[in-house]
Amino acid sequence: MFRLTTGAVGGAMMLASLATAANEIEPSPWFAPDRWERQLEYEAGLNTVPSPETLRLWHDQMCSEPHPAGTAADRRMIAYLQESFINLGLDTDVHEFEALLSRPISASLAIVDGDTREALAITERAVVQDADSGHPDLDFGWNAYAATGSVTAPVVYVNYGSWLDFKKLDALGVSCEGKIVLARYGRNFRGYKVKFAEERGAAGVIMFTDPADSGKGPGYPEGGWANETSIQRGSIKTLAYPGDPQTPGSPAHPGAQRIDEDALALPTIPVQPIGWAAAEKILSRMTGDEVPSHWQGGLDFTYRVSCDSTIVELNVEQERAVTPCANVLGVLEGTRWPDQLIVIGCHFDAWSFGAGDPHAGSIVLMEMARSFANLARADWRPERTIVFANWGAEEFGIIGSTEWVEANRDRLTGKTVAYINLDMAAMGPNFRSSASPSLRPIIEEVTHAVEAADRSGRTVWSAWTDEGSMQPSFGTLGGGSDHVGFYLHMGIPCASLGGSGSEGVSYHSNYDSLTWYRSTVGNDYQPAKMITMVGNVLVARLANADILPIDPRAYDDHLDPLLWKQIDEIPKLANVGGTRKSLSHQRIAALYNIGLANLRATTDITMTTALAGLADGTLTERYDLEAFNDWLIAVESLWLDPNGLPGRPWYRSTYAATDPRSGYGAMVMPGILEGLHTNSIDAIDAAVRVLQQRMDRIVGTAGDAHRANLDAIRRAESQSSGE
What we know:
Layout: H1 12-18, H2 33-46, H3 52-62, H4 72-88, E1 91-113, E2 116-119, E3 143-144, E4 149-157, H5 163-172, E5 180-184, H6 190-199, E6 204-208, H7 211-214, E7 234-235, E8 271-274, H8 276-283, E9 306-332, E10 337-347, H9 359-377, E11 384-391, H10 399-407, H11 409-412, E12 416-421, E13 430-435, H12 440-446, H13 460-464, E14 474-475, H14 484-489, E15 494-500, H15 514-520, H16 526-544, H17 554-569, H18 578-615, H19 622-637, E16 656-658, E17 666-668, H20 670-677, H21 681-722
Parallel strand pairs: 3-7, 4-5, 5-6, 6-8, 10-11, 10-12, 12-15, 13-14
Antiparallel strand pairs: 1-2, 1-9, 4-9, 9-11, 13-15, 16-17
Helix pairs in contact: 1-2, 2-16, 3-9, 9-16, 17-18, 18-21, 19-21, 20-21
């Protein structure tokens, strides 16, 4: 096992010499002018540390063997991460938890035609060019939490198995009752494909990778794309909360009280994933009605909806057990505000080697930890506490991070500045980010300070915005990764950082190896270095800023077009009386014209006054800065409804939530969107009332913060004139 030394930086004078062109970087408004040069020196010191060579070494170690959560290899990974943090000189915590996981025992799939039985492949073929593809510890294709069972039945093809796809089948009069449903991967979380099939009485589900979705170029190993045997593994858990299935809302510590497994809404039918070579043998035999045109996939024949004469035999055996797991955290305590936290995380469990998912992000996380540890050894520490978190069991349903959040609610409440997620962060040279609106301005700011991965001399900002000719494109955070507990349950500002643009995909397959990564994403590790450097600058500014760079003014730009869109949607509701539609339309219009307008005006004057006071030195008393920063930390949590969303109380944010029909997608103003989806004026009106209350709370606290700022400025001016 290799060890990485910190190579500590030799002090402030050395860092000052490395502070690249301080006069070329626009001063950040979040810092007092007399502290800005020092901050640039700190950032320059941090970004002398990341190197492609070290990133490659992290990758070598993390991808040395398959390590699904709960396995012996998973425990070896936990020990390695713990040792790595200790070697870096960080305070290290192994947060143990227990979770209900599943493991595959056996499975088979075959086409049955009279007395003949043609077995279909349920694992990838080994390729000569990649020795890891034949590793003896690799699993066949499987979906976590599938039920044990055997079924022999005809097949119904359901396209992506989305909510709309099943509605289309209903309209066509096609029944799934007692059938095996065949769905292609994509468009929605795989668990919802199974959930919707179960609701329609399906006896089993087969999911396959279609060349139209994942075979967009030469297949592995000739190219980086899926080949005909590539299989996407993954969890199919669709409970109304993430984390351990048996301890919703409570930490899954050893000995915790648990819901009986029989009471959980886990899948009750067998489910099997396959590649398109196996799927082709099923689909090509089907002789029923042609699919709607947009359901046609990438195989070279006409897809059919169903065929009673095409019989498939599906056998799945899995076991579920409460299994020890852990998160591994390295902590660097802050010098000025140690109780305030910035958390950076990435999960470490993988379905196979995890070179892309997750370790294209894990290597960035560990290299960031090494960067900050280096400067700490030179006695240059951040002013707020930084937590570097490796999460366990994410692939089974965002379990590790959820359990840590639930176990640390009191510590996190009112003290956590932001959570930064790095899952699969370095998958190409094109910078990308999804973020809470309040973090978008600071992310834009820091991309001016880092060179793009293509080494063209451009900044990340310039490459991201095509030489500044367009606005940066941010994604909206929904489900699917470890930000969920922080953002949607705790109301903590969150962002994901990453790079994309590689020509290929190995997602959740046995080909997610170092050989695939280095031949597809690249062997120079420049994307990983770029994301590390952006992350370093972002975390350094969050950790050291005098006024926290959490900007509630950004909610205006995000909400403005979305509320307008909802206003337009109300008149389109079917089977709703005109008077009720008119009243609901008026309420949303009032939310826009009054609620959002007040939010816009109050947050603007509050932030403008505070930043001006910081710039001219009138808002520099430690007490005033602390009070103002406490308000900024609290703003995101003011969107929380303690009762949670209707039917999903674990999700407490009224601002954003996961889409309950896609799993991955984001819903902004979820209450209104759910009301529109279900054609419920009552739900829309209730959501509008809650949102108005949340906006009023933000406006009220912003007004209090503004008055406190004015008082501080007046005191400073009075003292100055008196002198």
